[in-house]
């Protein structure tokens, strides 16, 4: 029983990391129809820069961690906004070019990160609490899982509040439903596009710093690894559905943990099979809009 509790809670914690990446992908696709394959680069850059900021204060302290999370989020937001302004904006409604540019950017940034920080993973220092565990119903749960769950819940609540209670949130929600109508009303949706990219990049950068705390290392390839599952989560949840991304993140991560433990490390295979089933039975995803 304790093993099952451990797998369930750590699965939800892993789902929190998936959601932090998938939320940006879902928002970006929902408003702009852009599949951003460079989204993992925002995560990796946020992780490296955030950790550098944390080390300047003290990587093993709470102050260092909080500064690292803040700087990581800001770095991801700035990188995403610059990407939208410089590379994506000239290519709206040109989907093949968007895919080629973002895939190329993702490959180029991995090479850039390897050139700056080296190709090998770097071990990091976490504070004492994050290195410890907490007993829950007889299971010893890594404290990083609780931090991931808290961060994902705060980000989900923050994005939902932003979309429902701000002017730009209203423009974004209207743009998801009918972008042409919003433009016809004289509203400059381009600012909303940049803002959505920045919000998604901030969530990815935050997720990058949190991922390093869970994995105890940072690597130029960590963003690409998490991006694969974030895309799976986005498709299963429904492209453009933030709630769907949240639900799918938990389902995918918990299923992955259970399969790895009870089915001989077959978690990745089970997740891909789930993706195939969802695409066959409900191509729009669990909470996506049907055609």
Automatic annotation (TrEMBL):
Protein name, per record: Branched-chain amino acid ABC transporter permease
Family stated for the protein in its record: Belongs to the binding-protein-dependent transport system permease family. LivHM subfamily.
UniProt KW keywords: Amino-acid transport, Cell membrane, Membrane, Transmembrane, Transmembrane helix, Transport
Topology with respect to the bilayer: Multi-pass membrane protein
GO biological process: amino acid transport
GO cellular component: plasma membrane
Principal cellular location given in the protein's record: membrane
Subcellular location: Cell membrane
Keyword Cell membrane applies: yes
Organism, as annotated: Nonomuraea phyllanthi
Keyword Mitochondrion: no
GO molecular function: transmembrane transporter activity
Pfam families: BPD_transp_2 (PF02653)
